[in-house]
Design brief:
4 strands; 3 helices; alpha+beta; globular; single chain; Alpha-Beta Plaits
Length: 120
Amino acid sequence: MGVKRVPTDVVGSEFVYIVLYRLRIMTDEESRDWLKRWAEIRKSLPKGIKIVAEAGNAFGTEFTGFTIFEGPFAKFEELHSNLELYSSHLVEKTRTIIGTKGIGAPKSQLQKILRDRPID
């Protein structure tokens, strides 16, 4: 059973993505390599995706940090693929929270997202 996708009639909406992550314990060399990779990922974000905030700590959670992205869902899927490709060997666990940008999304869109939302 694969990951469920957001319905295509909601894909054009703007979303906010909070990606919480827990990095595994790394050596100094691995840490330096990760920082270089992260810089490359940040420079090559899919068009339409932007980083709103980065946090090196996620106090009160089991995660070591989080990043908040903003943009269309189709581009976030592209970003998610890149993140998996370049960082999956360093990440122990992730949790992604997806929300519509603003509070004015039509009720029908919200119901579809809740019913068919992607799951980590």
